[in-house]
């Protein structure tokens, strides 16, 4: 069986298209692991470089700020670059920047290397979903996104926990070398297998049901929810050791369990999102909100904390899959620009969350208070998400009052 590629005229075998998605998922695995690797290695990095834990946490904050600022303008800048050429260049830069991270003699060199990786992330995240979905029929978009985002879930299952364990055994630098190796494998696979014109047109190029209002509501909800989650999650290692009372050696296995739950979340969301896109997103956000409050209330009980960290991984992966699928569905214009906006908003949430958590950490509220504040922010995000239909109806009413001209942005 073959899949026609719009713009190239060359059919692509379905089996080859699946292998391409696997290669892109491997690239996403490497990128996503590096993005959150400092969460598990935060105490080691802080001690080795002679900085505070809050400063080490800003390695996550700075990364998020760069992605938030750079995603849309960089995606617009490279929109005419062939996707295979672009992805190969991005992966080559990723490999080199992580080798610099591993060799960094001090905090500022490490921060500069992470800024470089973040610039790679800014474009990669924006184009990867449309590139992958363009290889398949539109009706299986959700399942393709779920397959692609299995790399994101595996980053939680294998990447961050294994990187945390490896860093504890050999030093925090070695995991960055390993991620460079995986990035190189992805680079070779993409260079060999991805057709030269893939992703530039086709089913991934435009939203299935474009709606400016629904997209804006989705972005506002995402910003609040992600900010809330990362207000606490950035410092989950500190929470588990200081509040739950677990030894540092237990953190990696717990993150592994959370990642395994994340695979289940990705699979379940992928199975549901093509039929119930809004409901899948709302349920995932509701679970995230409940988990944050659960950690605040029951985080000092080890069994409850273990279960809640697993539930956090499940809900986060389900939400991420549902979010990307929803972006591809309601994008008011190019899905690549919409994905860039989504990536920016997501990382604004990460940056703001890690910053808020870092500010709360040395206060009387501490890390437990950070989780509570995160839960409150997530409630706000859920409320915004549930208001989507109301917002659309209000827009339609205003359009009718202005003269009955159809509002195509609704």
UniProtKB/TrEMBL annotation:
Topological category with respect to the lipid bilayer: Multi-pass membrane protein
Matches recorded under InterPro entries: MFS (IPR011701), MFS_dom (IPR020846), MFS_Efflux_Transporters (IPR050189), MFS_trans_sf (IPR036259)
This protein's record includes keyword Thylakoid: no
Top-level lineage group: Bacteria
Residue ranges of the TM segments: 12-34, 54-74, 86-109, 115-137, 144-166, 172-194, 215-238, 250-269, 281-297, 303-323, 344-365, 371-392
Keyword Hydrolase: no
Domain (Major facilitator superfamily (MFS) profile): residue spans on this chain: 18-392
Subcellular location: Cell membrane
The entry's keywords: Cell membrane, Membrane, Transmembrane, Transmembrane helix
Predominant cellular place of this UniProt entry's protein: membrane
The protein's name: MFS transporter
